Amino acid sequence: MEFNGMVSVAVAVVLLGASILFLQSMRKKKLNLPPSPKGRMPIIGHLHLMDDDEAAHRTFARLGDENGPLTMIYMGSKPTVLVSTAAMAEQVLKHNDQAFASRPFLTAGKTLGFDFKSIVFAPFGNYYKRLRRIYTVELLSPKRVALSQVLRQIEIKHVMESVLAESQAGGPVNMTSKLQEMGIDNLVRMIFAKPNMGATECLTREEMVTLKGVVKEAVNLAGHIYAGDFIPLLDIYDFTGHKAKTQKLAAKMLKIALQLIEKNKSKDSGPNMDADKLNLVDILLSQQGDDKLPDHAMAGILFDFIIAGSDTTSVSIEWALAELLHYPHYIKRAQEELDAVVGKDRVVDEADIKNMPFVQAVVKELFRLHPAAPLGIPHYNMEATTLAGYDIPARTTVMLNLWAIGRDPAHWQNPTEFNPDRFLNKDITMFGRDFQLIPFSVGRRQCPGAGLGLAVVQLSVASLLHAFEWSPYGQKPEEIDMREKPGLVTPRMSDLVLTAVPRLPLHVYS
């Protein structure tokens, strides 16, 4: 009887506790989540909506059109908010910037980001703030970008000489290949060469081949959506081998980075050395106190520079040429402006660009239609918050669709048309004031290399238009392949092969 009484009491307690929990759950506020596509499935969420043959930014733009400018999808069990208009981008990057200033904890950040020590993948916090200060004050300050101008001039001159040689030989010019070479060579010079170093080569041919190989592999791996990031079982067993590949590559990248840093550090560097004579390696090694960087953080910075800066610039320049070839009258107008400012007896200098409003408009229109990284880098909130009246749970990924924002019909007339005139006599910037054009993002996670990237693209586009008459090789302009290749960076589907005819006296090219 005593035993049965104890059981009765225990049952009563359990029932009472269950009743309290039930009542609490009933009283608990129901979350007002952003609209979500139908068809969410167990375990995989909305992953089945992703199409390997369609670039992710196009899939996300379509989902935004169907569900609203703020759409919540589930990558596995993990909530992801898609942002596809300028107004919603302003809500995230201006009014809620700090709340969404972190990064999701993805495999790429753990491996290729050297345990989240690169500025691209580092979560928001004290380490990120110190790293950001090193970038903005020392590595990529306006002064440092200006000092490296001579290195950019050298690389674009190399491209012009190479194009001229192939033109004189009567053959076609593969601009995709040449621009890819220029993109990585330019960043390597910025890292290892002294400012005003001139044409001195920084790495051996073998070192460059090795470096380019790992950069290409890293871009390809980082551009794949890894299902193990969203479905834990797939991460545990790594059925596709993706995780193992990234770990193996990361070890190789770390070894290469440390070898190059050791080889290229200045023997005469020290606290009294003129800062203007330091290369990037010297700056990294000179950090003291809390800013002193461990080896894997320096490796992360080195590869941040090369991976984030090389493909993005080469892809942008290529898209500019491909678009302009459809509109010969725009090329003519740009060349008339170039001839008026520069003449035909010298090459374009960066100082000339400020006097070329139409060339600047061409580059802005390029970034509007073809942001090099159309989804940017995802944002992340560590704590629950609200956004535009919706409840956003903690640990939600936020994807800003820069491609869709640049085509937002609320801001752009005929948004799919390439038309540089839309920027003439209009004060529209690319650095955070005008959210309809944010190719480098905005706020605490804005690309620290935005100024450098813009300088490279403007100089390259202006120089190539000034130096050559361009036409498609073996096809009409309307036959140029304008399809995109899916990935983190979005190049064209096929190489851009052109015919180039010099339009300057030959002595100018050498």
Automatic annotation (TrEMBL):
Q: Provide the alphabetized UniProt keywords.
A: Heme, Iron, Membrane, Metal-binding, Monooxygenase, Oxidoreductase, Transmembrane, Transmembrane helix
Q: Name one GO cellular component term.
A: membrane
One matching Pfam family: p450
Where it mainly occurs, coarsely classed, is membrane
The record ties this protein, via InterPro entries, to: Cyt_P450, Cyt_P450_CS, Cyt_P450_E_grp-I, Cyt_P450_sf
Entry superkingdom = Eukaryota
GO terms of molecular function:
heme binding; iron ion binding; monooxygenase activity; oxidoreductase activity, acting on paired donors, with incorporation or reduction of molecular oxygen
Tell me which cofactor or cofactors this protein depends on.
heme
- Classify the protein's membrane topology as the record does: Single-pass membrane protein
Instruction: Please name the CDD domains in this protein's record.
Output: CYP71_clan (cd20618)
One GO biological process term is: secondary metabolite biosynthetic process
**Transmembrane region positions?**
6-23
Quote the record's binding site residues for heme. Answer: C447
Cell location: Membrane
Database matches in PANTHER family: CYTOCHROME P450 98A9, OS09G0441700 PROTEIN
Q: Which family does it belong to?
A: Belongs to the cytochrome P450 family.
Name the record gives this protein: Cytochrome P450
